[in-house]
Amino acid sequence: MMRLPLSLFPVIASLLLAACVGSGGEPRRFFVLAEETSPVPAATVGARGSIAVASTTAATFYDTTDIAYSAAPGTRAYYRAASWTEAPADTLGRLLLASLAADGAFESVTAATSGVRADLLLTTVLVDLHHEAVKAPGKVRVALAAELIDLRSHALIARKTFVAEAPAPTFDAAGAVAGLRSATASALRDIDAWVVATRPAK
Questions:
Q1: Domain 42-198: which CATH class?
Q2: Contact 146, 159 (CB under 8 A)
Q3: Burial, 40: exposed, middle or buried (Cβ in 10 Å; 0-12, 13-18, 19+)?
Q4: What is the 3 state secondary structure string of the chain?
Q5: Domain spans of the chain?
Q6: What is the pLDDT of residues 109-142, one digit of tens each?
Q7: What is the per-residue pLDDT across 62-116, written as a single tens digit (0 to 9) for each?
């Protein structure tokens, strides 16, 4: 059996990924990052304080509806024939607001743009959301930087970056989306738990 030179493997991997990315004639597909449902509030026994949730912002490269992947370390590109239905930061902001409202830990959870006064402010920035496709089928990575601010004293209570990874079940945009949905849900749960655990005692 003829053995291929090791130098050809990166080329072959790039060609395979290009096939997964899609040709110019392939119809574009649109994916939802997460299905949104009406949250059911948990029991409010022990609920205290109020929090405002700012809209999630995004690093420039991820402030788009394009789905990002990496075919080589230190690089990023977009799938040509696949997009999100909306910019992921918009979805994440709404999901985080709904999550905090549903878990019942606060007496009031509102959007920062509502004008309602609150004790705390949560801000988040999407700093990474991509399919690491260096080796098939790859994995996905989501990173969100969060800050919890005391609006009464205008002091920073804490900041933390949350990173979640998950396997991509297939070596294509659909596999990237499946993994990103799972990793995103994990990151949002972690942020919710961190906010509740980090808020001031009184």
A1: alpha beta
A2: yes
A3: exposed
A4: CCCCCHHHHHHHHHHHHHHHHCCCCCCCEEECCCCCCCCCCCCCCCCCCEEEECCCEECHHHCCCEEEEECCCCCCEEEEEEEECCCHHHHHHHHHHHHHHHCCCCCEEEEHHHCCCCCEEEEEEEEEEEEECCCCCCEEEEEEEEEEEECCCCEEEEEEEEEEEEECCCCCHHHHHHHHHHHHHHHHHHHHHHHHHHCCCC
A5: 42-198
A6: 999 999 899 999 999 999 999 999 999 999 999 9
A7: 999 999 999 999 999 999 999 999 999 999 999 999 999 998 899 999 999 998 9
**Among the listed residues 57, 32, 34, the one whose alpha carbon sits nearest the alpha carbon of residue 144:** 57
